[in-house]
Amino acid sequence: MSVCARPDQWHKNYPIAKGRHQSPIEINNKEVHYDRSLLPWFASYDPCAAKTILNNGKTCRVVFDDSFDRSVLRGGPLPGVYRLRQLHFHWGSSDDHGSEHVVNGVRYAGELHLLHWNPKYSNYLDAVRRTDGIAVLAIFLQVGKTPKPEMKRILEEINAIKTKGKEAPFPNFDPSVLFPKSHDYWTYHGSFTTPPCEECITWIVLREPIIVSSDQMAKLRSLSKNAENEPDLPLVDNWRPTQPRYFRMVFV
Ligand SMILES: NS(O)(O)c1ccc(OCc2cn(-c3ccccc3)nn2)cc1
Ligand SMILES: [Zn+2]
C-alpha cells in the first residue's frame, strides 16, 4: 500500500494529520457540554443544484452547483450561510462498522457527510485554509429492517459508477430528504478525515441515525476503488479511526 494509503502514515506527507483538531473523534455523552446559545440548524437546498454522482476511488460522491448561494446550510453553530458542494459516504467491510465518528463506543455501519463551504471566502480552496471555512453535516447510517426509501435514488446509480473515475448525471435531488426526523446534533471543531486533513471543519453530527438495509450497505460495498481496466479492489473501509480530542469540547 502506498504511504498515503494508511491513516497512521498520513502525517509523513501531511503533518497536520497529527494536529490537535483532527477528525473523526469519539463522542461520549458524559463528556459533552450543553451550550444554551446553540441554535437549530436549517438546510435549504435547491434540487436543481444536483449535478453528478461519481466514484473517485475513495467514496461515492454527489456534487452540486456551488457557484452561488443556491443550496445552503445555516444556523446551529454557524456564523452565516454555507454553500453545499458535495455529499459522500463512508462505510465498512461489514455491517458492524464503517462510521467515522463513534458515539458512546458505538460504531455505525456508515456515515453520510454533506460538505458546505463559507462563501465569505473567494472560493472553496480558499475556504479549506480557514478554521471557519467548511461545515460538514454528518448523519449515521444504521442497518435496520425499514430502510429510508429516499436512499434508493442514490443506490440505484451505483451500477453506473462501479469503478474509479466513473461519473453519471444525477439531476433533481434535494439531499434533505435523507435527514432523520430529529435535527438534534453535537458540534465540535475538526478536520477533513482524509488527507490533506486540514483543520477547517465545523462538524455538525446528527444524533439520530437514518436506517438503511443490509442490502443497501452491500450495494455501497459493490463499488471498486480501481479503474475499469484494473484488477478489482473492493471499495470498503474508507473510514478514518477516531483521533485524540485533546482540549476540544463537544457541544450539544
Ligand atoms: N470526510 S470529510 O467530509 O472530512 C472529506 C474528506 C476529504 C474531502 O476531500 C475533498 C477535498 C479536499 N480538498 C482540499 C483541497 C486542498 C486543500 C485542502 C483540502 N478539497 N476537496 C472532502 C470531505
Ligand atoms: Zn467524509
UniProtKB/TrEMBL annotation:
Domain Alpha-carbonic anhydrase: 1-252
Gene Ontology cellular component list: cytosol
EC number(s) from the headed UniProt entry: 4.2.1.1
Pfam families assigned to the protein according to its UniProt record, in alphabetical order: Carb_anhydrase
Recorded catalytic activity of this chain's protein: hydrogencarbonate + H(+) = CO2 + H2O
GO MF annotations in UniProt: carbonate dehydratase activity; zinc ion binding
UniProt main location, coarse: cytoplasm
Cofactor field: Zn(2+)
Keywords: Acetylation, Cytoplasm, Glutathionylation, Lyase, Metal-binding, Phosphoprotein, Zinc
SUPFAM superfamilies: Carbonic anhydrase
Location(s) in or outside the cell: Cytoplasm
Assigned protein family: Belongs to the alpha-carbonic anhydrase family.
Primary role: Reversible hydration of carbon dioxide.
Listed name of the protein: Carbonic anhydrase
Gene: LOC115340095
